[in-house]
């Protein structure tokens, strides 16, 4: 994969904590504080400015092509994405990847300390041996210097080798969760989630979950509108919670899964109207009990938790992109009153609508 060393621009992600507690950071309030610090520091600014958010992608021996490509693609240079990406290796030069591909990287391990966030893509046979000592030490040093570390799929093994996941929740591809737990018993491995955000260290499940992780980071940095725009560009789901279950082979009727997905899509287009468990189950043509049970399996949320988060997400985008009042937005998203919107906004995001708007409104980013 020639040209891997080219600079790119892209996005970060962050899923909100809240009712299911699958994301253990403090929520959007911390993202707001961090974002303001970045604004004051002068590098959460348009691409034309001199200081962009810095993203490193560490390519290890046996790296999986899709895992490497995800952060490079999500954070690729665009006028609306204030990021710069460097693809690096243990040393500059050729890195033998997995699946018959190799990578020519221009940067070595110094790129990890240069970066604001460094991604560790998955690689083949992660349970056999740890990455080379200099790689592990460079990851530790970068983290100590303030770089966030995000592992995609089996990249969690390299992150665990640093000791930075000890005592923390983490995930990896479902095929390797038991091996990760056995190799690193100090890590609290969760095999049932798409990704875990522990603040300065993040992990995701299989490759597609890396997209969810990136969109999560972008949502925390630039807001819902920017994240949704990136999702549309990638033809990806704009929001899958970190608590949503990984796909593990099992006997689940596929038509029923498609029917539930259609119901979720239907609900997203009528958030201003009443949506109860019975209404959703009726649309899916199943009993309320079956709908509720399967919905939790599919998304990690109860139906009404999911509806509430969808409404809050819609409110976030309206706060970012419009001048409508909090009362008007509350009516638009089906929460009735401004007081009700403020209550649920704080419960889920740890901040107020006004504070969120002040931080993420478009003119704050431009």
Question: What are the low-pLDDT stretches, counting only 5+ consecutive residues below 50?
Answer: 1-28, 34-49, 242-255
The first-level CATH class of the largest domain is given as Alpha Beta
Number of extended strands: 10
Query: Beta-strand percentage?
Result: 5-15%
Calculate the mean pLDDT score and round it.
80
Strand order of the largest sheet: 2-1-5-6-10-9
Organism: Paractinoplanes deccanensis
Keywords: DNA-binding, Transcription, Transcription regulation
Domain HTH araC/xylS-type: 261-359
Protein name: AraC family transcriptional regulator
Please characterize this protein's 3D structure.
The protein has 366 residues and is an alpha/beta fold. The chain has two domains: 28-234, Class I glutamine amidotransferase (GATase) domain (Rossmann fold), CATH 3.40.50.880; 252-299 and 301-366, Arc Repressor Mutant, subunit A. Helix content is 46%, strand content 11%. The protein has 16 helices and ten strands. The strands form three sheets. A six-stranded mixed sheet has the order 2-1-5-6-10-9, sandwiched between helices. Strands 3-4 form a two-stranded antiparallel ribbon. Strand 9 and strand 10 (201-204) form a beta hairpin. The radius of gyration is 20 Å and the shape is globular. Residues 1-28, 34-49 and 242-255 have low confidence and may be disordered. Keywords: DNA-binding, Transcription, Transcription regulation. Residues 261-359 form the HTH araC/xylS-type domain. Pfam families: DJ-1_PfpI, HTH_18.
């Amino acid at each position: 994969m020639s040209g891997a060393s080219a600079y790119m621009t892209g996005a970060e992600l962050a899923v909100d904590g809240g009712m299911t507690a699958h994301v253990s950071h403090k929520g959007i309030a911390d993202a707001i504080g961090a974002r303001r610090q970045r604004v004051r520091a002068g590098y959460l600014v348009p691409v034309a400015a001199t200081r962009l958010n810095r993203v490193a992608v560490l390519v290890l021996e046996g790296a999986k092509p899709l895992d490497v490509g995800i952060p490079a693609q999500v954070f690729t240079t665009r006028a609306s994405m204030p990021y710069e990406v460097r693809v690096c290796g243990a040393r500059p030069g050729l890195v033998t990847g997995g699946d018959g591909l190799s990578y020519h990287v221009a940067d070595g391990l110094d790129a990890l300390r240069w970066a604001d966030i460094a991604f560790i893509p998955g690689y083949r046979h992660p349970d056999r041996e740890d990455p080379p000592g200099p790689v592990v030490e460079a990851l530790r040093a970068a983290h100590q210097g303030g770089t966030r570390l995000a592992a995609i799929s089996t990249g969690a093994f390299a992150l665990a080798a640093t000791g930075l996941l000890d005592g923390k929740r983490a995930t990896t591809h479902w095929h390797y969760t038991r091996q990760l737990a056995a190799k690193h018993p100090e890590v609290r491995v969760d095999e049932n989630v798409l990704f875990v955000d522990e603040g300065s260290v993040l992990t995701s499940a299989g490759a597609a979950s890396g997209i969810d992780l990136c969109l999560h980071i972008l949502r925390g940095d630039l807001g819902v509108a920017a994240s949704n725009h990136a999702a549309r560009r990638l033809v990806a789901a704009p929001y899958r919670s970190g608590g949503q279950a990984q796909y593990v082979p099992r006997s689940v009727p596929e038509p029923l899964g498609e029917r539930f997905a259609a119901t979720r899509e239907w609900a997203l287009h009528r958030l201003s109207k009443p949506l109860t468990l019975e209404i959703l189950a009726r649309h899916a043509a199943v009993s309320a009990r079956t709908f509720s049970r399967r919905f939790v399996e599919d998304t990690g949320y109860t139906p009404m938790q999911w509806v509430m988060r969808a409404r809050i997400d819609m409110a976030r985008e309206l706060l970012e992109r419009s001048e409508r009042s909090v009362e008007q937005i509350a009516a638009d998203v089906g929460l009735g009153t401004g007081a009700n919107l403020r209550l649920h906004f704080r419960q889920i995001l740890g901040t107020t609508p006004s504070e969120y708007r002040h931080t993420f409104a478009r003119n704050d980013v431009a």
